[in-house]
Design a protein that fits this description.
This protein is an all-alpha fold. The chain is built from four helices and no strands.
């Protein structure tokens, strides 16, 4: 058996090792990633849209738009939930906290359906921290 010698230091890697140009994304793949961004509200929250924005969002403006929107909305909902959590001491938070979480879930589902249909979506209320 003959083995090929390793490439000399400083040379570019052979083709097939990720050295080639970035492949464009298909429409269905873009829609799937945007769907994952919005539905991450229920599972991993802020982490998933941030990772998608920094990785897949560099290849697709459509995915980046939805990742940024989802990230801003998730941050807004978490801040509102923290405030409502403190208001539990004033009794109004007992009603306010579940209301904030349910409204956040409803808007996340609406955004995910809209993004999967190929439309750009902006949440009606969201603090725009990331652009």
């Amino acid at each position: 058996m003959s083995q090929t010698p390793p490439p000399p230091p400083g040379s570019s890697p052979p083709s097939g090792y990720g050295a080639g140009p970035v492949q464009p994304m298909g429409i269905s793949e873009e829609r799937l990633w945007s769907l994952v961004c919005h539905l991450s509200y229920f599972v991993l929250g802020i982490i998933t849209p941030l990772i998608i924005m920094l990785t897949v969002g560099t290849r697709s403006p459509y995915v980046r738009h939805h990742a940024v929107e989802a990230l801003n909305f998730h941050i807004t909902i978490y801040l509102a939930a923290v405030v409502a959590g403190f208001l539990i001491l004033a009794v109004i938070g007992i009603i306010l906290l579940p209301l904030v979480l349910i409204v956040g879930g409803v808007f996340a589902v609406i955004a995910s359906v809209s993004s999967y249909q190929g439309r750009l979506y902006r949440y009606p209320f969201s603090v725009r921290l990331i652009s």
